[in-house]
């Protein structure tokens, strides 16, 4: 079923078939078929829509949900190190990898926090930390879903019993991909040398690894962005692509903005002097917000590319995108509830006592 606008008003099956036939006949098959004026319109709508959809605020809420998942994730990681390996050595290795990735940033406060967490060991803290991580990450996924629905101008129509299992599955995939990305970042410099020595691997393989890991990191980032763009919104996507225009823009923006931010932090800022032990946490918060801004900007661009495609096909999408949704039952229930509440308010107003003349 196709919907347009925030209220999700549906069209008839006949209208939907007519629209589909029209799209099939004249719709651009790809970005290469979009005219120059369409691209100019897409860029203008993207830059303005980023503010109209309140995406900086949405990125801030996503940062909050992301921070919520850090503590249970640390519990699971440290408990796993202590339970299944040499906890102290593994923690030091983890921090060495962090130092290699971000030289010049102090990890003393993080080391102290991990030492305290290492006192909580055993299989149950590991299991509890893992479950809490999945649940808190699902809150992030839910926030991303709401932001995506706002970008596409559609209502959430999936009920809790359908939506929450989907979000939990996406969360598990998200954790796996982010964990692999973190492992690639940590396995560099002295950490890679130590692992190579333990495995009996030396040059030139370590040099090859230092080169190959970056394309792998980009590939995992593409998978993560594609997962969030495809699985979170209530939009039904018939032709899925891991690498959309928006994903490319999001990844490029993320890489450039991250590089600029960390160059500024390491060379020009005074976070360590001003905030001392809180500097690392503050830097992480700002970077998470920047990363979420990049992700939402790419999603906004994808939505406007779809709008441009529909407009060039002659479909009235200047106000609302005409999209097929995964489910609309919850949206219809909410619309009925709003209508009932409005009727109740109108009745109260009509039954109001007449005002006395002055």
- Largest beta sheet: what is the strand line-up? 2-1-3
N-to-C series of helices and strands? EEHHHHHHHHHHHHEH
Tell me the distance between the termini: 55 Å
The largest β sheet comes out as: 3 strands, antiparallel
Organism: Orlajensenia flava
Subcellular location: Cell membrane
Membrane topology: Multi-pass membrane protein
GO cellular component, one term: plasma membrane
Structure write-up:
This protein has helices at residues 13-26, 36-52, 55-84, 87-101, 108-118, 123-152, 160-186, 189-199, 205-231, 245-267, 271-275, 279-312, 329-350, and strands spanning 2-4, 9-10, 323-324. The chain has 358 residues and is an all-alpha fold. It has one domain (36-332). A 3-stranded antiparallel beta sheet has the order 2-1-3, with no helix packed on it. β1 and β2 form a beta hairpin. The protein is globular. The protein starts with a strand and ends in an 8-residue tail after the last helix. The model is unreliable at 5-11 (pLDDT under 50).
Question: What does the secondary structure layout of this molecule look like, with pairings?
Answer:
Elements: E1 2-4, E2 9-10, H1 13-26, H2 36-52, H3 55-84, H4 87-101, H5 108-118, H6 123-152, H7 160-186, H8 189-199, H9 205-231, H10 245-267, H11 271-275, H12 279-312, E3 323-324, H13 329-350
């Amino acid at each position: 079923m196709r919907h347009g606008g925030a209220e999700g008003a549906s069209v008839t099956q006949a209208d939907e078939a007519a629209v589909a036939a029209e799209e099939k006949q004249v719709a651009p098959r790809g970005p290469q078929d979009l005219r120059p004026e369409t691209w100019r319109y897409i860029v203008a709508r993207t830059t303005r829509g980023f503010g109209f959809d309140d995406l900086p605020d949405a990125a801030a809420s996503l940062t909050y949900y992301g921070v919520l998942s850090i503590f249970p994730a640390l519990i699971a990681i440290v408990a796993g190190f202590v339970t299944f390996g040499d906890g102290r050595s593994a923690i030091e290795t983890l921090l060495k990898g962090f130092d290699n990735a971000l030289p010049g940033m102090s990890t003393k406060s993080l080391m102290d926090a991990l030492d305290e967490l290492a006192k909580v060991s055993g299989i149950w803290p590991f299991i509890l930390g893992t479950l809490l991580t999945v649940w808190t990450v699902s809150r992030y996924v839910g926030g991303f879903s709401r932001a995506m629905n706002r970008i596409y101008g559609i209502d959430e129509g999936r009920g809790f019993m359908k939506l929450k299992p989907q979000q939990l599955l996406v969360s598990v995939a998200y954790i796996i991909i982010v964990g692999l990305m973190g492992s690639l970042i940590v396995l560099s410099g002295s950490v890679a040398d130590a692992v190579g020595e333990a495995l009996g691997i030396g040059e030139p393989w370590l040099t090859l690894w230092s080169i190959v890991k970056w394309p792998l990191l980009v590939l995992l980032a593409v998978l993560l962005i594609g997962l969030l763009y495809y699985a979170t919104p209530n939009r039904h996507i018939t032709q899925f692509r891991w690498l959309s225009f928006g994903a490319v823009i999001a990844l490029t923006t993320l890489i450039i903005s991250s590089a600029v931010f960390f160059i500024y932090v390491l060379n020009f800022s005074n976070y360590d002097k001003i905030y001392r032990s809180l500097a690392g946490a503050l830097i992480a918060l700002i970077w998470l917000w920047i990363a979420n801004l990049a992700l939402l900007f790419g999603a906004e661009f994808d939505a406007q590319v779809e709008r441009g495609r529909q407009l060039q096909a002659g479909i009235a999408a200047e106000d609302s995108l005409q999209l097929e949704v995964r489910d609309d039952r919850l949206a219809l229930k909410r619309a009925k509830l709003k209508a009932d509440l409005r009727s109740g308010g109108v009745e109260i107003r009509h039954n109001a006592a007449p005002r006395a003349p002055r």
